């Protein structure tokens, strides 16, 4: 039921900034505001400060408007010349609107200006407003003059209202003390909102997650300081993990603190954890408490400190930890309690904020010191947004010259800072098994940036428990998975993992388990010191400076002869000579990028090898057959023996020959029957792929993108169960290629029916290139036709019964997209050329009424408003014209009172302001109507006065078909958005949460803004649900997204059954 029909770049609900700073640059930019901003950044408060000094025009810049809306709080520095700035005044209007509608926190700062001066518009504020009136009087255009008059009236009323808000004045206080007071007074984060949401749940838990040193404890302390007084009892138990390790009865000490804080009872004579737990359970059941448990690393700690019984309604628990799964495994999560739990994942600082934090400690200012730009960038890049690292290194570099900075940077490349490293090491030490620790070291040394599936294949072959191990690393904030399923690790975490390996033998690299430092490894191989302790090596000759090689850069195969346990070997752009008789036999991953020879026919015992990467090599053919080797030039044959009973690469699952520009054929797939993935990207000379590929029964992924000379795709491919096939840039539309003959009826014949993803981008395919039917591809879910000169969506696309994603990016000739399959969930069409002045040609988009919820990723702002038509997605008609049988089926009765009401609506992106009678809107199974007034239909029984309402699906012999939801919104007259006697409303997001199944739907109405008569607006909608989408006994939470209840008159809900 999720409806999102907007630009792909639209941000989700939530805040981007903690604070928006509004100020007059000429007055305070270089003094008070600068110091205030520095203090906010130092407190880890994400603050928006506009650096632009030149103001143009009457309207507010879009980026400023967006920043205000995306901020949790606003600080307005009302200085002497504030009123002379139209930008400042427009900011003020919008800030007041956010305060009125969403209860945005607002702190006016009367900086050397009395509140009465602002309220009465006297003194310098009168001078500023007189300047605007003069501009109005001098304006010859009557329409612009009218706009000026309206603006001035709005500004004056806004200033009067702002002066009545509780503000702050410096008076005779020190500026530093005044700034600290401002910073402390701001309700900074979503955590504060969570603490004040009025929930009556029996256990409301927030887990703050993040790697060591990211700021979890600092954030929890700040929130505790702000809100602990709002509860009957509160307790902050700090450093629980360390206290439990460093002291024999550490856990008892923590329990004792908790008991004394929340029950005021001391049990000095008790030395039993269970007795303390019972005491805590009894105390929290009778009092509304706020408990912070800092740095928890085991379930036993949580069970001892929280117990397993219900808390008093309204109680809040904050847990800081490095383990994402920890909280939900504790005893409190039992069917009797069913706590409400959310997670807050702390992220690294942005580059700009990182630089400011570094400067605060290194230069005692947020500004860079001249000449330190390059070295500061190096430190910021090294820290990668880690607050503790920036603080520690900044302090160590304070008052040092540039030469010292450079020396420090060079030292960090060799060995990490011990203090920072020890903090990060706590996460590594908390890993539950040796398997997880070895897995972490492997990933830190060799797998960052690799795909998760690939990593699991290789490390599983290394006899490691990869699936559970990677999950444990993710849970402990040591690893995360990028959007493209690649393994990603914070650079400091990776450096910590490598330092663990380095400490195995600090001075003798050959005694370590893994080597990745190119200089160290080259010396070890040159001196033939490698032994059986080595598990992995990675050498890239391009990373070595030639002057440091001291002689020949060639290596001998004999250097590897004693590495009996070597499983991972990277030899990129390495010239290696000698026989391979004693080459390591336990290899699982061999990477030889830039392989210099023309053919691969290595007589190696590689029966355990699962991944072979020879991309960017000079090979001209790839034939694993022992009986028919490709002829080689003298001196190019790699000698050895090959048993006819053993397949050379019998366990191989991944073969990557991408960017082998001279490769013309690949054959003898019978030698690699276990192959799962074949990557031949940009093999621009490749002509043929052998029919023997049908021996690869496990093959699921083939990438042949930009193989421009490929003439034959084997017909035997249809015998396989390939799921992903990439044929981008193969120029299929230019010539008669067997995979896609010019006879369009044969297009799909040579494509495996098992395909789930097919990409045919940039192939010069016209509509005539496609067959009439694609139904043989019954399993296809993702289809990419981007960059092709099609004028409409090909008809064959409609025959795909399971299609979910259709990509049509940069189809510059595309005019229409009509009736895609009803299963489609995402339609992507963007034309980059429109950003350079070219026209969007698309004129019609049509969907069937049965269409599933869809994400439409388009540049809607570039669509031609006069000709665009979107059918099936949005249907609008006057509610008076809707058939009574339809209204009855929705459970809507007695709506005559709204038929005569008129509203003005602003349709998102596609239309401007339109006045009409009350309309019925249909959007993918959601019927809705909007009207002025606060009268809810009498037949909706379940009501709430707040912004949310909980509803349990009743047991009934009738089938539940939907729910009616009604929301009444009110507002005080907001200066700047009143039009005549009408009031402009921005419709809320509707959030529906299935508490029982932990699912959430978000609905953003097609209509953006509505003008209605009076202060109240009513939004009535009917949600249709499928057969299994609502079940008896399930609890649903409906919420209209507004930050506080100040603009919510009430919610109501009613079920509809047949």
TrEMBL record:
<dbReference type="GO" id="GO:0043531">
    <property type="term" value="F:ADP binding"/>
</dbReference>
<protein>
    <submittedName>
        <fullName>Toll/interleukin-1 receptor (TIR) domain-containing protein</fullName>
    </submittedName>
</protein>
<keyword id="KW-0675">Receptor</keyword>
<dbReference type="Pfam" id="PF01582">
    <property type="entry name" value="TIR"/>
</dbReference>
<keyword id="KW-0520">NAD</keyword>
<keyword id="KW-0611">Plant defense</keyword>
<dbReference type="Pfam" id="PF23286">
    <property type="entry name" value="LRR_13"/>
</dbReference>
<dbReference type="GO" id="GO:0006952">
    <property type="term" value="P:defense response"/>
</dbReference>
<dbReference type="InterPro" id="IPR044974">
    <property type="entry name" value="Disease_R_plants"/>
</dbReference>
<dbReference type="InterPro" id="IPR042197">
    <property type="entry name" value="Apaf_helical"/>
</dbReference>
<feature type="domain" description="TIR">
    <location>
        <begin position="15"/>
        <end position="190"/>
    </location>
</feature>
<keyword id="KW-0677">Repeat</keyword>
<dbReference type="GO" id="GO:0007165">
    <property type="term" value="P:signal transduction"/>
</dbReference>
<dbReference type="Pfam" id="PF23282">
    <property type="entry name" value="WHD_ROQ1"/>
</dbReference>
<dbReference type="InterPro" id="IPR058192">
    <property type="entry name" value="WHD_ROQ1-like"/>
</dbReference>
<dbReference type="InterPro" id="IPR036390">
    <property type="entry name" value="WH_DNA-bd_sf"/>
</dbReference>
<dbReference type="InterPro" id="IPR058546">
    <property type="entry name" value="RPS4B/Roq1-like_LRR"/>
</dbReference>
<dbReference type="InterPro" id="IPR035897">
    <property type="entry name" value="Toll_tir_struct_dom_sf"/>
</dbReference>
<dbReference type="InterPro" id="IPR027417">
    <property type="entry name" value="P-loop_NTPase"/>
</dbReference>
<dbReference type="InterPro" id="IPR000157">
    <property type="entry name" value="TIR_dom"/>
</dbReference>
<dbReference type="InterPro" id="IPR032675">
    <property type="entry name" value="LRR_dom_sf"/>
</dbReference>
<keyword id="KW-0433">Leucine-rich repeat</keyword>
């Amino acid at each position: 039921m999720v409806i999102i029909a907007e630009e792909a770049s639209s941000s989700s609900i939530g805040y981007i900034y903690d604070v928006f700073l509004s100020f007059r640059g000429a007055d305070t930019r270089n003094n008070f505001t600068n110091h205030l901003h520095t203090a906010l950044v130092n407190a880890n408060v994400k603050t928006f400060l506009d650096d632009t000094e030149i103001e143009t025009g009457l309207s507010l810049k879009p980026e400023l408007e967006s920043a205000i809306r995306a901020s949790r709080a606003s600080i307005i520095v009302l200085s002497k010349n504030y009123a002379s700035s139209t930008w400042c005044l427009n900011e003020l209007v919008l800030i007041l609107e956010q305060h009125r509608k969403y209860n945005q926190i607002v702190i006016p700062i009367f900086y050397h200006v009395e509140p009465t001066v602002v309220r009465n518009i006297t003194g310098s504020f009168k001078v500023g407003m007189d300047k605007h009136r003069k501009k109005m009087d001098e304006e010859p255009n009557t329409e612009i003059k009218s706009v000026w008059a309206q603006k001035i009236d709005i500004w004056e009323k806004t200033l009067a209202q702002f002066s009545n808000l509780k503000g702050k004045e410096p008076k005779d206080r020190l500026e530093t003390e005044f700034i600290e007071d401002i910073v402390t007074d701001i309700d900074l984060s979503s955590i504060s909102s969570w603490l004040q949401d009025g929930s009556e749940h029996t256990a409301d838990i927030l887990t703050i997650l993040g790697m060591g040193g990211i700021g979890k404890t600092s954030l929890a302390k700040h929130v505790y300081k702000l809100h602990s007084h709002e509860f009957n009892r509160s307790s902050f138990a700090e450093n629980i993990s360390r206290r439990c390790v460093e002291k024999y009865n550490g856990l008892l000490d923590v329990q004792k603190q908790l008991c004394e804080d929340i029950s005021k009872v001391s049990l000095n004579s008790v030395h039993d954890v269970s007795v303390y737990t019972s005491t805590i359970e009894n105390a929290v059941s009778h009092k509304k408490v706020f408990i912070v448990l800092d740095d928890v690393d085991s379930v036993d700690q949580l069970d001892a400190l929280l117990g397993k019984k219900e808390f008093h309604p309204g109680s809040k628990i904050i847990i800081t930890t490095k383990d994402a799964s920890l909280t939900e495994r504790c005893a409190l999560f039992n069917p009797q309690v069913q706590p409400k739990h959310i997670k807050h994942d702390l992220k690294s600082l942005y580059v700009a904020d990182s630089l400011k934090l570094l400067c605060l400690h290194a230069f005692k200012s947020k500004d860079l010191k001249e000449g330190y730009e390059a070295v500061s960038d190096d430190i910021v890049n090294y820290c990668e947004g880690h607050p503790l690292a920036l603080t520690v290194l900044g302090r160590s570099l304070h008052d040092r010259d540039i030469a010292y900075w450079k020396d420090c940077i060079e030292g960090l490349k060799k060995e990490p800072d011990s203090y920072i490293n020890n903090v990060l090491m706590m996460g590594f030490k908390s890993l539950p098994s040796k398997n997880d620790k070895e897995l972490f070291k492997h990933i830190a040394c060799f797998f960052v940036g690799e795909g998760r599936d690939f990593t699991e294949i290789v490390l599983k072959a290394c006899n490691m428990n990869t699936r559970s191990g990677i999950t444990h690393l993710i849970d402990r904030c040591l690893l995360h998975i990028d959007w493209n399923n690649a393994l990603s690790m914070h650079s400091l975490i990776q450096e910590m993992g490598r330092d663990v390996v380095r400490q195995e033998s600090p001075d003798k690299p050959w005694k370590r388990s893994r080597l990745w430092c190119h200089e160290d490894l080259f010396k070890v191989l040159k001196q033939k010191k490698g032994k059986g302790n080595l598990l992995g090596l990675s050498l890239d000759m391009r990373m070595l400076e030639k002057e440091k090689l001291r002689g020949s850069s060639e290596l001998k195969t004999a250097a590897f002869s004693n590495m009996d346990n070597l499983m991972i070997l990277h030899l990129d752009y390495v010239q290696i000579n000698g026989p391979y008789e004693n080459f390591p036999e336990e290899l699982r991953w061999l990477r030889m990028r830039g392989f210099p020879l023309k053919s691969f026919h290595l007589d190696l015992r590689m029966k355990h090898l699962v991944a072979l990467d020879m991309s960017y090599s000079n090979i001209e053919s790839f034939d694993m057959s022992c009986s028919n080797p490709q002829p080689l030039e003298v001196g190019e044959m790699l000698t050895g023996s090959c048993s006819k009973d053993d397949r050379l690469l019998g366990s191989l699952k991944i073969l990557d020959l991408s960017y082998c520009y001279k490769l013309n054929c690949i054959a003898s797939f019978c030698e690699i029957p276990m192959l799962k993935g074949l990557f031949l990207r940009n093999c621009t000379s490749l002509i043929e792929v052998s029919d023997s590929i049908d021996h690869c029964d496990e093959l699921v992924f083939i990438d042949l993108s930009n193989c421009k000379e490929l003439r034959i795709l084997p017909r035997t491919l249809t015998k396989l169960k390939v799921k992903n096939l990439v044929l981008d840039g193969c120029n299929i539309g230019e010539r008669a290629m067997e995979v896609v003959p010019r006879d369009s009826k044969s297009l799909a014949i040579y494509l495996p029916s098992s395909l789930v993803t097919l990409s045919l981008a940039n192939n010069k395919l016209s509509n005539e290139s496609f067959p009439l039917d694609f139904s043989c591809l019954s399993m296809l879910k993702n289809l990419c036709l981007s960059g092709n000169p099609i004028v409409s969506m090909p008809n064959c696309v409609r025959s795909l019964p399971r299609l979910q994603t259709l990509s049509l990016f940069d189809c510059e000739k595309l005019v229409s997209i009509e009736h895609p399959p009803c299963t489609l969930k995402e339609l992507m069409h963007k034309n980059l050329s429109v950003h350079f002045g070219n026209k969007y040609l698309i004129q019609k988009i049509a969907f069937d009424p049965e269409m599933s919820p869809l994400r439409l990723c388009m540049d809607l702002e570039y669509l031609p408003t006069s000709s665009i038509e979107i059918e099936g997605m949005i249907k609008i008609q006057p509610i008076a014209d809707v058939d009574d049988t339809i209204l009855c089926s929705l459970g809507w009765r007695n709506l005559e009172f709204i038929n005569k009401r008129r509203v003005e609506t602003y349709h998102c992106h596609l239309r401007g302001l339109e006045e009409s009678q009350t309309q019925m809107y249909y959007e993918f199974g959601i019927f809705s109507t909007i009207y002025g007034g606060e009268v809810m239909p009498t037949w909706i029984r379940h009501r709430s006065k707040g912004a949310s309402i909980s509803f349990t699906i009743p047991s009934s012999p009738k089938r539940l078909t939907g729910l009616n939801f009604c929301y009444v919104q009110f507002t005080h007259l907001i200066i700047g958005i009143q039009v005549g006697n009408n009031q402009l409303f921005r419709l809320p997001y509707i959030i529906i949460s299935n508490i029982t199944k932990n699912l959430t739907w978000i609905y953003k109405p097609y209509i953006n803004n509505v003008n209605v008569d009076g202060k109240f607006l009513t939004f009535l909608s009917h949600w249709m649900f499928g057969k299994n989408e609502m079940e008896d006994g399930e609890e649903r939470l409906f919420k209209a997204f507004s930050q506080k209840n100040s603009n919510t008159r009430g919610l109501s809900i009613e079920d509809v059954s047949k």
